[in-house]
Amino acid sequence: NMATYFGRIYQARYLSGLVAGSMTESNLIGYVAAHPIPEVIRGINAFTLGVRAVNPDAEVRVVWTNTWYDPVKEREAAEAVLDEGADIIAQHQDTTEPQKAAKERGKLSIGYDSDMGQFVGDTVLTSPIWNWGEYYTATVEDVLDGSWETHEFWGGMADGVVALAPFSPQVPDDVK
């Protein structure tokens, strides 16, 4: 009477890394990260592989907050790597504070979880996003019609569970 499910967000993180790597001018990209656990590290690795696929000279500098949700720490972490010369901020955190810090400094960012452009405008180039609606709807329909069975689900972009948010107008067509 149970199932496990998760999404391959690393797919969208890789693609967002391609965008960041193409658009950095300083070759230093800051990454505000929660905890050093496999899921977070997998996301950082995917993002970094995307960055380096288009810009082997770029560095992704990770700043750990050791919290899942702390707007103050997330902003401070972003500001620290911006002070070091980063011109793009990415994250595995849940607030918009890293994006706000980047915008206030005239820098760019990559969001996470949802389209963060709606909060800080066009300085967010894109965001890896989750879309659990399709999975939840199908699961509830299966339960209601009696066809639900235990399973393991690890969906990705092909399943619609993860995606990239729309690109900012600042992203050139050749990068899109």
Task: Please give a handful of descriptors for the protein shown.
single chain; 176 residues; alpha/beta; four-stranded parallel beta sheet; two-stranded parallel sheet; 8 strands; 19% strand; elongated
Q: What does this molecule look like?
A:
The protein is α/β, with parallel strands linked by helices and 176 residues long. The protein has helices at residues 9-23, 38-54, 71-83, 97-104, 117-120, 133-145, and strands at 4-7, 28-33, 59-64, 88-92, 108-109, 128-130, 152-155, 162-164. The strands form 3 sheets. A 4-stranded parallel beta sheet has the order 3-2-4-5, with helices on both faces. Strand 2 (28-33), helix 2 and strand 3 form a beta-alpha-beta unit.
Would you list the SSEs in sequence order as H and E?
EHEHEHEHEHEHEE
Strand arrangement in the largest pleated sheet: 3-2-4-5
Low-confidence region ranges? none
Specify Rg, calculated over alpha carbons: 17 Å
Query: How many distinct beta strands?
Result: 8
Query: Averaging pLDDT over every residue, what do you get?
Result: 97
Helical proportion, percent range: 25-40%
The structural class is: alpha/beta
Which shape, going by the Cα principal axes? elongated
Report the end-to-end length measured between terminal Cα atoms: 43 Å
- Could you give a short account of the major beta sheet? 4 strands, parallel
Q: In DSSP terms, counting alpha (H) and pi (I) runs of 4 or more, how many helices?
A: 6
Provide the β-strand percentage band.
15-25%
